[in-house]
From TrEMBL:
Domain Bacterial alpha-L-rhamnosidase N-terminal: 187-357
Keyword Electron transport: no
Transmembrane segments: none
Protein name: alpha-L-rhamnosidase
Ranges of residues in domain Alpha-L-rhamnosidase concanavalin-like: 367-466
Length: 927
């Protein structure tokens, strides 16, 4: 009799748990989203996770059923797609191969799997909603009518300023309010709202806000692509007449600095709206409510100005009670005007919107002078403050935000540059009033409140932490409190700078998606956050920003026109592509980005590579390397560039190796040869040009030597000599400290561990003196500073919430301290390389990562000279376990000799470690 295994979905898994011997599908996903609404591709990819308490559980086949009718799935009928029993161990990025998908249609799907442990039963049902897939799917007339003009949708707005907006140079622009009443013509079966509200929008139906997101949609270069959101709004409708309301904020469409540095900053225009509400009826007919000039609009509402840099002004005396409900008198409102479309392709938004992810109460309120109070939330964060107040009509509460205080207790705002980072709320005087902004955010720990009626108390204030609605999928804890606090600081800084794209900082007049700030750090971020969709968008933003000649920007989307022909900033595209492939197993991202990367590398070679194969072009050098002492950097601006052909040449060599690998994946044999041959010539030229007989490269800077070591550019006879130079630089010259900037810090910790000195890496990570991550914390940091000397540098470039100085620290936490690393040959954690550094100085390390295959854990502790190492390997994965022991006899698993465990296979002895192949399951090793 064949063994049958239980297959359930998340709801059952978490409601009832798993009995011994059961196998479950713990998650079904379309394009890695659970039950997504608004997919615009004909071949979405499907994914699922397998959870099992049975060791060595591997999928051997699957069957997927897809139907428009959920009842069909109940009788196991996949009339849209039945994959049949398909022999495969893939559980991610399985491409849909059924009938052509129809717009605005919900598709239900379920799956059955077969494993080496037995056959499963059908999972519960999940769904995705196919959205509007083409430009012409956006209705401009009612379905069934002959359109007057054949186009895709009607954009509305007001392409002008109003008298109360002030002059354009002030960047003051009030929010636009639009409304429309409609009546369904039958019994509604489904209702889906599609909206592109630029720059930002809030959507209401019958007075209720749709969705729990904020600051939507995510920003793009609107001339290249614009993102739509879709919502199931059937439950928001009522019989008879209904009302739609939309508020438009400025976001990045009405640029934050409209008339400032026009040569650098892209401008797009005034806010605008494209909207479709598709109503499908029980009788099979449908109508569409769409944006046109029958809508009414006004800019004379309560949001008097909104600007991402400067904040928001809200006048509650201008509130329009019931403006988004049926029956509101809009006779004094204007007729909505047709406006030009933004120019970019319409695309479904596949990455998350932002959301209020946490609420943080104040830790203190301090009166400083007059009616001014400082509210301290104890944590540098991004978002805003919500408050309650009761006062007279016309009284104004003024807010100013900052990251820190001056020595005399005032807000320190010099590092904001000309960003005002403020808010003004005018009371309407009708009882207790609550307010929070809609179309701005701040980077802050402190808020100055003035004009508050009465005495402010903690109960009337709360900070709202805002970032992209991504899961935290990683945990890390060690016996060293400083390492743990650094991890916490990194988490807060990383989360807060997810703003529909990864930005550099959240507080000053910048907030740009600088590419160089990310790089290798994205791997560490992915261990912490389910951020693959954020970075797939960023890769696409870079792709869209490429010029016809092949050049790439330093910022993407290129809101700032910075095309510096720098290798290290645009080259992050390769590093992010590699992260996505290695961490998730996504092969498509390699295929899609390869032509862009290839074209760019050719462009850089043709323009800047000498006949001696040195890439003589770099813009930033090792950006923001620390001054020699904390005092040496006092009052000095960090905005200084030190271009380095050594760095650019080393990076280009590294990229040739990566591209050769990508080319091989796609069977591009000519490209493989091209990149291998080019790399060989660059390596030879690099060593001739930069290697010194004394055993170091370049001018002897730490970064100059880390790069050739990690990139394996050093001639074999010189490796030990160069690495010893690195060790001496750190231990003697730097007295145990780092001396790297943005570039070098991305390779520092892993190079030390790769060459056998994890102990030195740990010393660097646990330093509390300058320069170090610990020094930041000792000086009050609750995120990561932009500069190692952030407490003494000039304020013009001195953010206290940047991620660029994290480097490869968090990568090192996971891959080396915990020993969780995806195999290069089997990416997406199908095979996990687990070789922790059981470094002395730590008594325990506990880490976990919810990978695309499932939950991975690695926890070790040292007691009385023995190590206990607990490991969890997800189903459908295997691990290569490296245990430091001179003999197999000294290793036990679950209190038994490891040699007696049938599932575990001994592979080899390597560098003093016993190496085993271990299938999925939970294990406890002692040695």
């Amino acid at each position: 009799m064949r063994k049958r295994v239980l297959v359930t979905v998340t709801m059952l898994l978490f409601s009832f748990g798993l009995a011994f011997g059961q196998i479950a599908i713990s998650n079904l996903r379309c394009e890695l989203l659970v039950n997504p609404i608004g997919i615009d591709m004909q071949r979405p990819s499907l994914s699922w996770e397998i959870t099992s308490l049975i060791r060595n559980t591997n999928q051997i086949a699957y069957q997927i059923l897809v139907s428009e009718n959920e009842n069909n799935l109940a009788v196991n009928k996949g009339d849209v797609w039945d994959s049949g029993k398909t022999a495969s161990d893939s559980t991610a990025f399985v491409s849909y191969k059924g009938k052509k998908l129809k717009k605005d249609t919900r598709y239900y799907w379920k799956i059955k799997i077969w494993t080496n442990q037995g056959e499963g039963v059908w999972s519960a049902t999940a769904y995705w909603h196919q959205g509007l897939m083409n430009y012409k799917d956006w209705a401009a007339t009612q379905v069934g009518e002959m359109p007057f003009v054949d186009w895709g949708g009607r954009w509305i707005g007001f392409d002008r300023m109003f008298p109360w907006d002030g002059n354009q140079s002030e960047n003051r622009l009030s929010a636009r309010y639009f409304r429309k009443e409609f009546k369904p013509v039958g019994k509604v079966k489904s209702a889906t709202a599609y909206i592109i509200g630029l720059g930002l929008y809030e959507l209401y139906i019958n007075g209720k806000k749709i969705g729990n997101h904020v600051l939507a949609p995510i920003p793009t270069d609107y001339t290249k692509n614009v993102k739509y959101n879709a919502f199931d709004v059937k439950e928001n409708l009522k019989e008879g007449i209904n009302a739609i309301g939309v508020v438009l904020g400025n976001g990045r469409y009405y640029t934050m600095r409209q008339l400032h540095q026009e040569y650098k900053i892209k401008t797009f225009g005034f806010p605008k709206l494209l909207f479709n509400l598709v109503l499908k009826y029980e009788d099979g007919t449908e109508t569409v409510v769409f944006s046109d000039n029958t809508w009414k609009g006004t800019a004379d509402g309560p949001i008097r100005s909104n600007n991402e840099y400067d904040g928001e002004n809200y006048d509650a005396t201008k509130e329009m009670l019931g403006w988004n409900k049926v029956g509101f008198d809009d006779s004094k409102w204007l007729k909505a005007e047709f406006v030009q479309e933004p120019g970019g392709n319409y695309e479904a938004q596949m990455s998350e919107n932002m959301k209020v992810m946490d609420s943080i109460p104040p830790v203190s309120i301090t009166k400083i002078a007059g009616d001014r109070y400082i509210i301290d939330f104890g944590q540098n964060m991004t978002g805003w403050m919500k408050f309650a107040a009761q006062g007279k009509k016309g009284e104004q509460v003024k807010l100013r935000y900052a990251e820190s205080l001056t020595p005399n207790g005032e807000l320190a705002v010099a590092n904001l540059r000309d960003a005002k980072a403020q808010a003004v709320y005018t009371l309407k005087g009708s009882g207790k009033e609550f307010w929070e902004p809609s179309f701005t955010y701040y980077g802050f720990r402190y808020v100055e409140v003035s004009g508050y009626p009465g005495t402010p108390t903690k109960e009337n204030f709360v900070a709202k932490m805002v970032y992209d609605d991504v899961r935290t999928v990683g945990t890390f804890k060690s016996s060293n409190p400083l390492l743990n606090q650094i991890y916490k600081n990194v988490w807060w800084g990383t989360a807060g700078n997810y703003k529909g794209m990864p930005v550099d900082c959240p507080q000053r007049n910048e907030r740009q998606p600088w590419l160089g700030d990310r790089g290798i750090g994205t791997i560490g971020e992915n261990f912490m956050f389910d951020n693959a969709r954020i970075y797939k968008k960023l890769v696409n933003d870079i792709k869209l920003a490429q010029k016809a000649d092949g050049s790439l920007p330093d910022v993407a989307p290129d809101f700032w026109r910075y095309y510096s022909d720098n290798i290290t900033w645009p080259g992050v595209m390769l590093l992010i592509t590699d992260m996505l492939h290695q961490q998730t197993g996504d092969v498509a991202v390699v295929r899609e980005t390869y032509p862009v990367m290839h074209k760019w590398l050719r462009y850089m070679k043709d323009r800047f590579m000498t006949t001696d194969y040195i890439l003589n072009k770099d813009s930033y050098g090792d950006w923001c390397a620390p001054p020699a002492t904390i005092e040496a950097g006092r009052g000095i601006s960090a905005n200084q560039k030190f271009p380095s052909p050594l760095i650019s040449t080393a990076y280009y060599y590294h990229f040739t190796n990566m591209m050769a690998g990508y080319a091989a994946m796609q069977n591009k044999t000519e490209d493989v040869s091209y990149y291998k041959n080019l790399g060989k010539k660059i390596k030879e030229a690099f060593n001739i040009t930069y290697y010194k007989d004394a055993g170091y490269y370049g001018k002897g800077e730490l970064t100059d030597n880390l790069l050739p070591l990690y990139f394996e550019m050093v001639a074999e006879p010189n490796v030990d000599k160069v690495f010893q130079y690195v060790v001496n630089t750190i231990k003697v010259k730097n007295q145990g400290h780092l001396s790297t900037g943005v570039i070098g810090t991305q390779w520092l910790m892993r190079t030390l561990s790769k060459y056998g000195r994890a102990d030195i890496a740990l010393q660097i990570a646990t330093k509390k003196t300058y320069p170090s991550w610990g020094y930041m914390i000792e000086n009050g940091a609750t995120t990561i500073w932009e500069l190692w000397n952030g407490n003494t540098a000039a304020p013009d470039m001195n953010s206290q919430n940047h991620v660029m100085m994290v480097g490869d620290l968090v990568v090192w936490y996971y891959q080396y301290l915990a020993g969780i690393q995806s195999s290069v040959q089997n990416p997406g954690f199908r095979k996990i390389i687990m070789s922790p550094e059981f470094v002395h100085g730590l008594d325990f390390v506990q880490a976990s990562h919810q990978a695309i295959t499932g939950l991975i854990k690695s926890e070790w502790k040292r007691e009385k000279g023995k190590i206990t190492w607990t490991v969890a390997i997800p189903s459908n994965s295997t691990a290569e376990i490296h245990i430091p022991s001179s003999s197999l006899k000294n290793i036990q698993e679950n209190s038994k000799p490891i040699s007696s465990i049938n599932e575990i296979t001994y592979l080899r002895t390597e560098k003093g470690r016993q190496v085993f192949e271990v299938p999925s399951g939970n294990y406890v090793f002692k040695f």
